[in-house]
Each structure stands twice: as structure tokens, then as C-alpha cells.
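Chain and conformation:
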Amino acid sequence: MQYTSPDRSIRTTERVRTLVLAAIVGASLGAAAVVVAYMLRPTLTLEMDRSLPRRFASGLYDAERAGQTTFTWTSQRADIKLADLSRRVSWTCSIRFRGGRSDPAMQPSVTIAADGLVATTVNATNEFQDVPIVLPPRSSSGAVVTVTSSSTIVPGPSDPRQLGVQLDRLTCAPQDGRPWPPSTTIIYAGLTSAIFGGAFVLAGLTVRLALAMVTTLAAFQALPLSAGPAPYIPFAESVIWFAIWICIGAVVLVAAFDRWRPVPLETSARMAIALSAAVLYLKVLGLVHPSKLVIDAVFHAHRLEWVMAGRYYFTQPMPDGVTFPYAIGLYVFAAPWTIFTHDYVTLLRVIACAAQVLAGALLYPVIVKAWNDRAAAVMAVVLFNMVPLPYGLLGNANLTNTFGEAVAVVAVATASLVSGGVLQFALFFGVSALAFLSHVSTFAILGVTLAVLVVGYRVLGGPSLQRLAWPIGLLTLAAAALAVILYYGHFGEVYKTALRVRAAATTAQSQTEVTPPPASASPEGPSLGTRVTNAIRSALGMIGWPILLPAVVGLWRSIVDRSRDRATLAVMAWAVACAVFLGVAVMRVDAPFQRYAAEFFGRVLLATFPAAVVLAARGAAWMWNQRAAGRIASLGLVLWAVVRGTQNWMVWFGLLLRGASPLGLPL
């Protein structure tokens, strides 16, 4: 007969109770949060600057642009299906459209119907007009707004589309009362929050921490779930699977660390893992939102198809016929995962997003190993995910650059954590090689960063770091050589063409400079001082004052303490690489290449901003340990950073447009 300890039985019962409590509270908070978010902003506004889901809008072609105006052509009939729309109150819908006919006599009459009943018929013109209709209250939910043109036009033999009218905007707002969101959205918002609440408890968080984190997640989750067409399509139902797999991964990771480590994980480490899981879910929620612009994501999906078809070597064009190798590390890494999905756009977005979150999470062990400051380590995880720059690049689908620089941060973090052993060095070599193969700029910036880190270990580090300098340096060279052999070495003609173009440009410039320009002529382009000032101004916007201000405090503490630890040397390596390539970015370049110089500076900051994050975490943690004024300043700066990061995330799914806050207040 097996004996069970009473204490163990009590602990198990208590944990089950805590798990159930967290799930129930999470479900309640998730449902309540999405109801409140929807009630505060029930108006549905569809700007036709992006393609809408087919299950939500049928009879609409892809979005087009004429100057600053975006629109979509309808076919002869277009339907907007507001599934499960609350009809306890009346709604007013306004449809903005124009005929788009060169011959005024060809303008169609447009019939607008609600739920199959004709509401109004108007004649189209070549000027946009707003036509309102009313959706009266009724017992059943849901609505269908139909736009029907009396006639269509065909652009030509190469474009056989049957075009009705140009639709610019559709807005539906309740006339009175506060409508509830669709029931499906409420149910799945509650289920997702319950899953995360249970996962936080299984990850070993205390009841208070688990409830605090699930409360925060429920509030953030409610924003995309209640925005745009998301409530009226099975969006919440589909994204719950992301929540399930992310939570499973977080719980398994914590269990693995608890099993393999000689001592269990500290609460701060569990919190860092839980935070990273929640951030990953929220970022994915924004990236797959139906209002999210695709931008260049389809381009990357096609490149993934090329790689899977065996086409590995391709280039990216630049002005004057110059091209450069287009690295494929992201696509090679993504290829095995295609067995789970054929939606390559979502797959690549999720992989790039996960790489970013992993890079931020690894700052935790780097800081703990160097400073044994767990508060600073958790703050670093938070602040890393609040920097504005990655949101802009990931939102614009610069996926290869985003992935490459994220893997580069992982490589630097791995170099800062290794203490010896074949497996650790093999991991560093593999991650570094993947980073070198992921983007041309990553190859250069990471190479300089690791070189400076090795020199720092050798010159400034203690005996243990000095012993690591040689193997890290040799493995860095081996990883770079492998990247050249496998990929970059196959583009000999590309490099020769670039040199010929540069030589021709230099010859042409020398010939035009035989006759000196008039004394009154101004030099081409801005001065060096202006370029440096513009670069610094861009850096302030891309990283943000809430992070740069405490970073100054962290830098001061590092100087006062004369730090020469792993984290400080990693910061130094990132800073030196940033300074080196800042000099390259602000060099005088010809007009056709000035845009590329600005983009290159953004890539430099993307690769090196962790230096500011680590210093900011150190500064914020130091301020927190001071008196009340320091705690207030530290908390205020972190909250400011969270607000800025949230704003950049909300732009992805259109909740922040033209400076409007989610409640319609100016920012």
C-alpha cells in the first residue's frame, strides 16, 4: 500500500485550488475587459486602406490609392456582414463612395440595403458622398449592409474586373445606449484569459502575481479583440490556439528548468518567462489582426516558397543597377515549420516575433549572472519589449532584418552566458552562424560587436573572461566563414558589378568636377553636423526618452562602480558597434542612396539598442532602491515606456490613427 504524505496532499490540493481560482478570475476578467473596451468604443470605422477578410466583406476588390485617398472598388454587389452585431439598440451606418466614371452619363445609381431591405437609392457622382442608413432595433442579432450598383464598367482587356463604385469608408455607430460585443468574442476572451491564468500558476507564480498579470493581459487583449472587424469574425476563436501553444511552451520551459537545475527557479525568473509569454501572445494578436496591413509580408512568403523549391541565392536591387545578396536565414529556419501550416505570412511573422521576445528574455540571465540584480533583470525584459523601433520594423514586415537582429542579440547574450563546455560553445556557434546568414547588415554589425566583446574580455575582463576570449573569437570567425562559404561567397558577379558601378560613378564625378561650381552654389546635401544631429534625433525617437533617461543613470552607475562584468562588456560592445556604424551612416552619400543610408542607421539601432535597455534597467532598478522620490521616478519611467510601447503596438491593428488614443483622446 503506497503512503502519501499529508503535507504533500495538502500542497497538491492548495495548488489545484489556486489553479482553479486563477482560471475563474482570469475568465471573468477577460470577458469583462472586452465588454468594457467594446462599450467604450463601439463605433466601427472601416477605412479602405487595406483588404478586408472575405468572410466579413464580399464583393470588394483589393485596396487602391489615388494620391492621399485610399478606396476599394466594389463589384456590382458588395456585402458587409456584421455577424452577431447587438441589435438591442439602433445603429446608424454611413457609406462613403463615388462613381469613378470619366463620362458623367455613365454614373450608376446605387442602392443601399440593410438586412435585405432597401434603405435608400442615390445617384453616384465623381465626388465622394456620404449616405446614411439606419439599422433599427430587433430581437435577433447580426446585420448585413449591401451596396449594389445599377451598372458596372470593365477597365480593359488586361483587367476584366466588373467595377461598381469606389468605396472609401464605412462607419457604423450606435444611436443610443451601450451595445454589448458579440457573444463569441466575450466567450473566447474569457477562455484565453483563463488559460493564461492557469498557466501563470503552473509556472509557479504566486496567487497575487498570477492575478496581477492575468488582469493586465486581459486589459491589453481586449483592445485588439474589440477593434475593427475582429468582433464580427471568428478572430478570437482562432487566436486562442496561439494562447494555448504559447502557454504550453512557457509551462514546459519552467518545468524543464526546475528539473534540470540543482535549485528551483526564482520567482523573478518565473515572472520573466511569464511576461515573455504574455508579450509574445499580445504581439501575435496584433500581427494577425484582420486590420493589420500586410505590407511586405507577402514578399517574404514568396521568398520562403523559393527556398523550399530549392532556389537559395537571390539578390535585392538598389539604385544605379547595384544589387546585394539577400540572406535567407529566416526562410531556412522557417522551412521545417511549414509542415504545420500553409499560411506562410503568419508563420514568418510569428517566427520573427518569437525571435524578438526570446532575445529580450535572454537579457534576464545575462543581468542576473553579471550583477545578481533580479529587479533590473525583470525590468530589462519589460523595457526591451517597449522600444518603439522594433514595432515599426515588424509592423512594416521587415522580417528578415527583424529576425536577423533578434538572433544577433541572442548570439551576444549567449556569448555573455557561456562559461565553458562543448554544448555551450556549439550553441553559440550555431546561433552566430544563423545570425550571419540572416541579413547583410547583421553580418557586419554582429561581426564588429562580437569582435569588440572578445577584445573587452581579453583586455578588461578577469581571468575567467580572458580564458573565454579566444574560443569565442575563433568560433565567431568560424561562423562568419561558414556563412561566406554557404552563401555570401556565391555572389562574386554581384560584387564585381557593384565595384564597376562605383568606379564608373567615381570617374563621372571626377569629370564633372573639372569645372569648379560657382561660388554661390551650395554643397549638395546637408552638412556633417546636420546629418549627425538628424541621426541623434532619429535615435531619440526610435528608442524613446523613457528608456534613454534611466540609461543615463545606469551608465553613471557603471562608471562609478567601474564595472567590468559580462553585462557591462556586452553594453560596451553594442555601443562601440553603434558608434562605428553611425559614422558610416552619416557619411555624405549621393542623393539616390540617402534613403538607404537612413534605413541603414535604423538597422544599426535595431542591432544595438539592447545596450540602452540594459543600462536603463540598471538605472531604473537603482532608482527603485532609493527613497520615495527615486521609486516614483523609476515607476513613472517604466510606465511611460509601457505606454509608448502600447501605442506602437496599437498602430498595428488600426486602433491608433492620426494621434488618437483608444478612447478618442489626443496623445
Remarks:
- DSSP finds 22 helices and eleven strands in the chain.
